[in-house]
Model the fold of this input.
Amino acid sequence: MCGIVAYIGYKQAHPILIKGLQRLEYRGYDSAGISILNGGIKTYKTVGKVEELEKYLVDKYIDGEAGIAHTRWATHGEPNKVNAHPHFSQSKSISLIHNGIIENYAVLKEELVARGYEFESDTDTEVLVNLIEDIRINEKVLLDEAVRIALGQVVGAYAIVILSEDHPNTLIAARKGSPLVIGIGENEYYVASDATPIVEYTKNVVYLEDEEIAVLTRGQRFKITTIKNQEKTPYVQQLEWNLSELEKGGYEHFMMKEIYEQPRSIRDSMRGRLNPVTGNVSLGGIIDYEQKILAAKRIIIIACGTSWHAGLVGEYLIEDIARISVEVEYASEFRYRNPIISEEDVVIAISQSGETADTLAAIELAKSKGATILGICNVVGSSIARATHGGSYTHAGPEIGVASTKAFTAQVTVLTLLALRLAQLKGTIPKTRFMQLVQELDRLPEKVEHVLHNNGLIEEIAKKYKDVNNFLYLGRGYNFPVALEGALKLKEISYIHAEGYPAAEMKHGPIALIDENMPVVFIAPNLGIYEKVVSNIQEVKARKGIVIAIVTEGDTTVKKIADYVIEIPKTEEYLVPILASIPLQKLAYHIAVLRGCNVDMPRNLAKSVTVE
Ligand code: G6P
Done:
């Protein structure tokens, strides 16, 4: 949610900043802006995507070796040039970029207005930059001290970077609740919301902690203190990513690249954790908590969006295979509904980005009640990864497309490993059967590869139904969450209204919607309660609905009734969610492309939601 990038050193800043914004664009893309320091501060802003800003800068003088830049996802004020970042202090000597929300901005603004400050924008950010200036002037303190005092008065979340005419060799960065990474080069510093803009320049990074302020002066050692003015010893980490993971690699969109990466990403999620010969399953970051989980009254999974859908699959997996009771909650509801949590509960937070504000808040709540908190995150070193007691990374690699694909299947893979490990420890499955399950999981990447090659029909279906207004997705058991995720993918990127439902619940409402214009996607593998799903398909056909069914290779029953069938290889029931999700990702992708939608950056969405 909003992307921040900043540079100070001895290179030209603007190419680094523009490229950085492009890499961060998935975080927000309604307006963008840049401030460069060269004597004075020059600022340029445009509405729309970063490419608009890039075009606008072509004939501008933007030389300078220090600068800050921002791509916005609007919270306060509509997305226009005035509300775009960076924002200035009244004297125009301080420029600031901000990600997050200052909750008490209205009160602070009133006080500043009373002291003669005038505001150009509707943003909370302009309030913060003027508060800093006001403190600096009135309390006659240095800029870093003014920042510290100002942040002490602020309620809310922020990641900020400040550029000042009076301190031309220094950037000041601070965070609370919104992520910020500092890249350390040779006599130069980079700052960004995540490591993607930094990785091509340096692998040495420091993840700023909440309530820390970094003073970054070119050619000098950097200094980190807390807002209570305690000096911190920074922990410099090495980035594991490489540049090629951040490029499209010949695909038209990141989303398609990421869909096609799934055989590899699923394999990476299992690497070193599954031994198909001995049957051993181990998740390093969870080993210390295994006994706690086995003794737990229940597991509570908290997550948002696609990660919540992965959590639902996790519920089916863990209850079915390991026989431990699981509840799955939207983090945003859990945090405000006064839930009953005890020290005997184990909470698992699932998050691709590791930065989702609601999930983080739910973790803090559960922690305060003494629960053990584990995380399943994709982004290494992210806030959620650090806030949890233990956990497992999904190792799917950077996911840039806003609609989650490979992160989802990687989350489900890790949950599958967890369910198997718990089953192994509890002895809930006979050894020979357990070995069959483990070996089938090991074969999964090959089967995913196979599913990915099945293309023609999906494109044909996309062409035929790209202009409908509604879609229904139905599944039962393990495939109910798949129906939800399939519907979410379609609405996120194509803007077609789509609903996911348990197939049997259709008759309690959605059946009223069915007519000859309504495509209904069934996830109907030849497993579990297949016959019952077939009856649900009949119910749709009886009302002239259009049936698109995901079936097991060789299926004959559904083939006779459905309008279209997309085959997936035969597998164990508990692995169908991963295989069945892939054609649904591709269907949503092709429909969105045919409708001319921006697949990687759908309107109004952001990949990392760091506000409530
Ligand atoms: C946003 C993204 C979704 C994602 C959700 C949760 O809404 O657009 O794709 O599923 O946040 O994000 P997380 O990073 O916590 O998995």
